[in-house]
């Protein structure tokens, strides 16, 4: 079933309504990238060879403890399973040796101290940055699944969100010059984000060679253009993430699963003049979201929605210099409004 989009000139830009349909009939390019991800993931695990043990000193509730884990195989998520089921559900990110943010499903390389971070800790800024980056990534998955092939959709990038602006972003390219989504269409995209959350899918990380990355994104000229620069800054490696069958480039870290996403609104789409050319038109998709553990009243959330619709002025040339602001201050804003309701 497709949404009836009246304001779009070409039916190729219609958005599908059921995300399960999209993932079951994923495009060949999406399926191919996911297949390459699986093959490389398997190859890296098989290359570990002789299993060596490492000591992971867990610091936190219910009590500090030392775990003996497998080098290059065990992950912070595996450690959380030893500590308690609720820590698997609630932990968004790990912190190694009190300084290095680490994905929950990324294998541990050496003995270390381990802290599990969530969105309700007194200092949640590290987990919050990962949350906003993950929201942009998940928005890309939804957009990739929601447009028909005739739309000419390409995912371009998702620069660091300017938390002060109150929204996460994902830049896309479409063949249509004057795409202006209606409120029902944006609501449909928001619903698909929530459906991803309800599926509680793992968000997986993998470091691959630039050659394999080029193969993964062989049909996306914008990703292929970005890969050499990304690899040059990362010892020839490109970090990619996968959720479902969707694969994209990001330095990370990201939260461990889609189930940590709570209330979410895809609030706006803005045309971007910079970079647009004949047959390729750039748009900045924006949204706002809250972690599943955080609750907020309708009035306060409506203020956040309205704020998130304002165009976020982030230029690709300056992406590396943009400083990500902490969500902690942003949370204080809506908590203030919550107290006023």
How are the SSEs placed, and which strands pair?
Elements: H1 19-24, H2 28-46, E1 53-58, E2 65-70, H3 76-83, H4 85-90, E3 93-96, E4 100-102, E5 112-117, H5 125-146, E6 154-157, E7 168-174, H6 183-199, E8 204-209, H7 210-216, H8 221-232, E9 237-243, E10 246-249, E11 261-277, E12 280-291, H9 298-308, H10 327-340
Parallel strand pairs: 1-5
Antiparallel strand pairs: 1-2, 3-4, 3-5, 6-7, 7-12, 8-9, 9-10, 11-12
Helix pairs in contact: 5-6, 9-10
Give the tags.
disordered C terminus; four-stranded antiparallel β-sheet; disordered N terminus; 341 residues; alpha+beta; single chain; 10 helices
Q: Please bin the fraction of helical residues.
A: 25-40%
Distance between the termini: 39 Å
Q: Could you say which structural class the secondary elements and strand pairing correspond to?
A: alpha+beta
Total strands: 12
Unreliable residue stretches? 1-13, 17-26, 316-341
Coarse morphology:
globular
Rounded Rg: 20 Å
Strand fraction equals 15-25%
Q: Secondary-structure element sequence? A: HHEEHHEEEHEEHEHHEEEEHH
The whole-number mean of residue pLDDT values reads 85
Explain what the structure shows.
This protein has 341 residues and is an alpha+beta fold. Helix content is 36%, strand content 24%. The chain contains ten helices and twelve strands. The strands form three sheets. It has a five-stranded mixed sheet with strand order 2-1-5-3-4, sandwiched between helices. Strand 9 and strand 10 form a beta hairpin. Helix 9 crosses helix 10. The longest helix is centred in the middle third of the chain and has 22 residues. The protein is globular. The two termini are 39 Å apart. 38% of the residues are buried. The N terminus and C terminus are likely disordered.
């Amino acid at each position: 079933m497709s949404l009836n989009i009246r304001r779009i000139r070409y039916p190729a830009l219609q958005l599908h309504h059921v995300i399960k349909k999209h993932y079951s009939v994923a495009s060949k390019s999406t399926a191919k990238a996911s297949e390459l991800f699986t093959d490389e993931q398997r190859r890296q695990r098989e290359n570990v060879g002789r299993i060596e043990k490492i000591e992971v000193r867990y610091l936190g509730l219910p009590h500090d403890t030392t775990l003996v884990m497998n080098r290059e195989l065990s992950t912070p998520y595996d450690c959380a399973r030893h500590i308690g089921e609720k820590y698997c559900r609630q932990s968004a990110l790990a912190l190694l040796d009190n300084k290095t943010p680490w994905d929950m499903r990324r294998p541990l390389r050496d003995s270390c101290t381990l802290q599990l971070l969530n969105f309700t800790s007194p200092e949640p800024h590290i987990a919050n940055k990962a949350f906003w980056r993950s929201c942009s990534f998940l928005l890309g998955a939804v957009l990739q699944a929601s447009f028909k092939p005739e739309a000419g959709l390409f995912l371009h990038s998702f620069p660091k969100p300017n938390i002060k602006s109150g929204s996460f972003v994902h830049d896309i390219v479409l063949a249509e010059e004057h795409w202006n989504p209606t409120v029902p269409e944006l609501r449909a995209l928001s619903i698909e984000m929530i459906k991803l959350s309800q599926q509680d899918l793992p968000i997986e990380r993998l470091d691959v060679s630039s050659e394999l990355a080029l193969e993964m994104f062989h049909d996306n000229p914008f990703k292929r253009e970005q890969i050499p620069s990304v690899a040059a800054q990362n010892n020839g490696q490109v970090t990619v993430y996968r959720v479902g069958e969707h694969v994209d480039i990001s330095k990370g870290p990201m939260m461990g699963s889609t189930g940590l996403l709570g209330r979410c609104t895809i609030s706006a789409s803005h045309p971007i003049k910079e970079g647009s050319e004949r047959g390729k038109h750039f748009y900045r998709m924006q949204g706002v979201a809250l972690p599943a553990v955080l609750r907020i009243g309708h009035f306060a959330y409506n203020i956040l929605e309205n704020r998130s619709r304002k165009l976020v002025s982030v230029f690709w040339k300056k992406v590396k210099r943009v400083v990500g602001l902490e969500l902690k201050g942003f949370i204080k804003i809506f908590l203030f409004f919550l107290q006023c309701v």
